[in-house]
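for the writeup, i need someone to sanity check this before i put it in the appendix. the sequnce is what the collaborator sent (i think, or maybe the updated version? ugh). structure was predicted straight from it, no edits. if anything looks off just tell me and ill rerun, i have time this weekend
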Amino acid sequence: MTATLRLALAQVNPTVGDLAGNSALIREWAARGAEAGAHVVAFPEMMLTGYPVEDLVFRQSFVEASQRR
């Protein structure tokens, strides 16, 4: 018996700093992938933050918001 792994690629455009909106996109597209039979859904790098967190990591409110997501 051969195991099959189905991978979906989510080509979405996250918004910089929009943790709520980006996490909603992740949930939406993960559900779409699962409905299409995918076992794994791959997203762009930095999907949650929409941006390399370099300067945002120094904002306490941003760190706390990312931990809640």
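The chain has a mean pLDDT of 90. The chain is about 40% helix and 10% strand.
thx in advance!!
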